[in-house]
Amino acid sequence: MSDGPPWDQDVVLPPLLGAARRTYTTAIRSALIDAGFDDVPRSGGAVLGRIARSGRNLGDVAGELAVSKQAASQLIDTLVTRDYVERAPDPDDRRRVTVGLTDRGRAAAAVIRQAIERVDAALATRVGADDLARTRAVLRTIVEMGHDRS
């Protein structure tokens, strides 16, 4: 460590958040490749994770990725072709389509979850559980501020 000021002293939050996200993205990508899921497209991990957590409709997926429904649909098409995701008519509204994970998709989502948990555990070791909880609270507040403007 240097005796000077922290390297991030003059860096505004957006690039720091982007760099932090890349730490997770790199860990997820490496874990997927190591587990044999080397054909998950860029942003595919986020889609698989979203569907695994709760998103079963295309609008939810598009919102999570901050892309158009058309772009999300194209990514879903790729994941369907590669046997990670399946589409089905919404039982409550036949005009809508739901998406779900295949067995292969559930296996890839489990790898993603484990990679995230490893980064979280390493972070908790470095900064402590209390600081990690405070970080989550700060990030949640930033997200809520963005929703307040919508």
Descriptive notes:
- Helices cover 65% and strands 7% of the residues.
- The longest helix has 25 residues, at 103-127.
- The protein starts with 12 loop residues before the first helix and ends with a helix.
- The model has no long low-confidence stretch (mean pLDDT 89).
- It has a two-stranded antiparallel sheet with strand order 1-2.
- A hairpin with a 7-residue loop joins β1 and β2.
- The radius of gyration is 18 Å and the shape is globular.
- The protein has 150 residues and is mainly alpha-helical.
- The chain has a single domain (13-148), classed as Winged helix-like DNA-binding domain superfamily/Winged helix DNA-binding domain (Arc Repressor Mutant, subunit A), CATH 1.10.10.
- The protein is built from 6 helices and 2 strands.
CATH fold annotation: Arc Repressor Mutant, subunit A
- CATH architecture descriptor: Orthogonal Bundle
**Number of distinct helices:** 6
For the largest beta-sheet, the strand count, sense and barrel status come to:
2 strands, antiparallel
Radius of gyration: 18 Å
Kindly report the average pLDDT value.
89
The percent of residues in helical segments reads 55-70%
Beta strands, count: 2
Oligomer: single chain
Level-1 CATH class name: Mainly Alpha
Specify the CATH homologous superfamily. Winged helix-like DNA-binding domain superfamily/Winged helix DNA-binding domain
